[in-house]
Design brief:
- The termini are far apart.
- The chain has 19 helices and 23 strands.
- With 509 residues, it is of the alpha+beta class.
- It has a 7-stranded mixed beta sheet with strand order 17-18-16-15-21-22-23, sandwiched between helices. Strands 3-2-1-6-14 form a 5-stranded mixed beta sheet. It has a 3-stranded antiparallel beta sheet with strand order 4-5-8.
- It holds the Pfam family FGGY_N.
Length: 509
């Protein structure tokens, strides 16, 4: 019986999911990958560790599926976008990968923003460069690590590194290629873009770009031995994880905004023509002639995860020992907090924000009568409010009247209802625990000839979808809270840099 393998590598966890061709997940395995933070704003990972962890997850998923590896008809990887994974001229890792939560290049981006580079970039590439864009990180390496810069043979994304480990072939796909160096109109690489950022000597390092569902290689003997895969299994190019999540959740369509509440606040919609604006990135869709406009910031559930890791460590440990999810353990506290009035507000800017690199996270309105549940509610509301900033921006340029929500928090019905009330539109959740991995698997199935194209989802998505509609009274209350949230942020714009200056060694880029 044919199966498909979708690999989904995030910023902390890498996973492998085996799917039946009807979309049923047969088995999933995951491994945590170490995050290194050698200094403030530097967030990295070891590339070899990532591959070893992913190979272990693939082997376990195959074992758990009860199906032989030879049943796998196609493989595709998706992973966190942006950041940078470097190979030297011998195709070996060139130091640690730099993750998309990294903000070391903030000073370079500020310099570009204050010059004409930003205006030229948005006109040419469809986006203003940001701190974790390949353009900014490569420029930082050029300035701060010139010897490393000279040794760059290729640069790629996270999923492209995994593809290389599987096949021995360097390359990327159209969605990932458009993170910095493509012409927004032609959707192809532009040497002018490299020139704009002072990176013209890296034209040789651009990875060839293919369609996301194009077979670009086959599993090598070495990779087969490590993973348990069958040697020669087709591997397709794969795609950027925000696109994969929208595809897997049924939100990759015109007239819909896909809201991905993951480490990043991802909000995206499709169009048949490029539309550029400083508030969103206009990047390549899966197929030529389709553009995916995404308004994003590194300010979503990474804040919730930080809260759990920092302030709920005992519950997490005890829960895992007893076989319970930390989310299930805390759900009663959160639900109770949603039922009572609260003045607590939280700006979810631990790792970045729509307000620039100087912004930082903070609670406002806390009183001695508030408990941890109130703080958790404020964190979740802050995440939803930040998504609304981005959704409202997209509403100014595109027509949509419904949202598709994906991400771990979408499993909580109360949170889904909150998003509907905050956004003021129906929010649909598809019962897909592994949306990004399934989006990758759809590309693998298309490449293998099982599906007509990546959007030919074999599932009856209507039957596995649940829609929450906004409640007028709650939406009105959230509107008041949201306006206070925005007013506080506006007032903090002049204060955040002063706060950062209190610890200059941590705020330096």
């Amino acid at each position: 019986m044919p199966t498909l393998l979708g690999i989904d590598s995030g910023l902390t966890v890498t996973k492998a999911v085996i799917f039946d061709i009807d979309g049923t997940p047969l088995a999933a395995a995951r491994r945590r990958v170490t995050q290194f933070i050698p200094k403030a704003r530097h967030i990295e990972r070891d590339m070899d560790e990532l591959w070893s962890a992913t190979a272990d997850a693939i082997r376990e998923a195959i074992s758990l599926s009860g199906r032989p590896a030879s049943d796998i008809e196609g493989i595709a990887a998706t992973a966190h976008g942006d950041g940078i994974y470097l190979l030297d001229h011998a195709q070996q890792p060139l130091g640690r990968a730099i993750l998309s939560l990294d903000s070391r290049a903030g000073a370079i981006v500020d310099r570009w923003t204050q010059s004409d580079v930003a205006d030229l970039a948005i006109e040419l590439t469809g986006q203003i460069p940001h701190v974790s864009a390949p353009s900014a990180l490569l420029a930082w390496i050029r300035e701060m690590e010139p010897e490393r810069y000279k040794r760059i043979g290729h640069f790629c994304s996270c999923k492209d590194w995994l593809r290389f480990c599987l096949t021995g072939i360097i390359g990327t796909d159209r969605t990932e290629a458009s993170t910095s160096f493509t012409n927004v109109k032609t959707q192809n690489y532009s040497e002018d873009a490299l020139q704009l950022f002072g990176l013209q000597d890296l034209v040789h390092a651009l990875p060839p770009a293919s369609r996301s569902d194009q077979i670009v290689g086959r599993v090598t003997r070495e990779a087969a031995q490590l993973t348990g895969l069958a040697e020669g299994t087709p591997v397709v190019a794969g795609l950027h994880d925000v696109t994969a999540s929208a595809l897997g959740a049924g939100g990759y369509a015109k007239g819909v905004v896909a809201v991905i509440a993951g480490t990043y606040s991802i909000n995206e919609t499709l169009s048949s023509e490029p539309r550029v604006d400083r508030r969103w990135f206009c990047r390549n869709g899966i197929a030529p002639g389709i553009w995916n406009s995404m308004s994003i910031s590194p300010a979503s559930t990474a804040n919730y995860d930080w809260f759990l890791a920092t302030l709920c460590a005992a519950e997490r440990t005890n829960g895992e020992v007893r076989g319970n999810s930390i989310h299930a353990l805390l759900a009663p506290e959160i639900d109770a907090a949603f039922e009572r009035p609260s003045t607590a507000l939280f700006h979810p800017y631990l790792f970045g924000s729509p307000y620039g690199a100087a912004a930082s996270a903070g609670f406002f309105g806390l009183g001695g009568w508030h408990d941890r549940g109130d703080m958790l509610r404020a964190v979740l509301e802050g995440i939803a409010f930040n998504h609304r900033i981005h959704v409202d921006a997209l509403r100014d340029g595109f027509a949509f009247d419904q949202a598709r929500l994906a991400g771990g928090v979408s499993r909580n019905p109360a949170v889904v209802q909150m998003f509907a009330d905050v956004l003021g539109m129906p929010v649909t959740v598809t019962e897909t625990d592994e949306a990004a991995a399934w989006g990758a698997a759809l590309c693998a199935g298309s490449g293998a000839g099982i599906f007509a194209d990546p959007q030919s989802d074999p599932r009856d998505t209507a039957s596995i979808a649940k829609t929450c509609r906004p409640d007028a009274a709650r939406s009105a209350d959230y509107e008041k809270r949201y306006q206070v949230f925005r007013d506080i942020a506006d007032a903090m714009i002049s204060l955040w840099p002063r706060i950062a200056a209190l610890a200059p060694e941590q705020s330096a880029n």
